[in-house]
Amino acid sequence: MSRLQKQMDYVLQHEVCVPPNNEPQVIVVTYDEPAVIQNSAPVKPETTQSEIDLGLLQQAEALLNCDNQFAFDSAEVTPSFKQRLEQAAKILQAVATAPYQILIDGHTDFEGSNEYNHKLGEARAHNVQAFLVASGLVESLIRVESFGETRPNFKGDSPAIKLSNRRVDIDLVYGDALSKSLTKTVSK
To answer: For position 66, which CATH number holds?
Structure first.
């Protein structure tokens, strides 16, 4: 819940979303042509590739959830969100050893019928998926779901709250969580 609260506080205070940087990052990615990954701090000799990949996955997940709101009654991915998605896709393509899955959940505000909002949330999630695939990610690694208006970030009808609820939430599943997720999928 604290992540959602921080996101809403940010939306209310800023016009542009910048990924949070609460702790020092080992890896910084620059997005010049071509993309270059460089160390921002000295990497300890005992740092493993898996630890570096974990840092990259965390950085990508932060990017995937910035500027992730949509205009009213629209499934069109905004230019600022496309930029974040493109940056995250470049990072995910650089991950060397960590397998992962991407879970995209589409959401809406409460305007409109439940059925319409479910379809709109689904269209938002599918459009994000299509953009990530066009940016070089493998479609089979991406799962899409819609929650319509059933899981709002916040309750209320102010423009800022409605904007916060018109979104996609994107989670990267990796490590032990991925193993458990794959086990559940196989056993169904």
So the answer is: 3.30.1330.60
Scored b (16 or more CB within 10 A) or e, 51-64 reads ebbbbbbbbbbbbb
What token pair was written down for 52?
A: 């570096």
Exposed/middle/buried for 10, CB within 10 Å: 0-12, 13-18, 19+? middle
> What percentage of the chain carries pLDDT values higher than 90?
56
94 vs 106: which has the higher pLDDT: 106
Judged against a pLDDT cut of 60, whether residue 35 lies above it is answered with: no
How far is it, in rounded angstroms, from Cα 152 to Cα 164? 8
pTM over 0.85: no
Residue 47: pLDDT band (50, 70, 90) is low
CA–CA separation, 126 and 168 (whole Å): 10
CA atoms of 55 and 131, how far apart (whole Å): 23
Domain around 46 = 2-187
How many other β-carbons are positioned within 10 Å of the β-carbon of residue 15?
6
Number of domains, the chain: 1
Contact between 78 and 67 under an 8 Å Cβ cutoff? The reply is yes
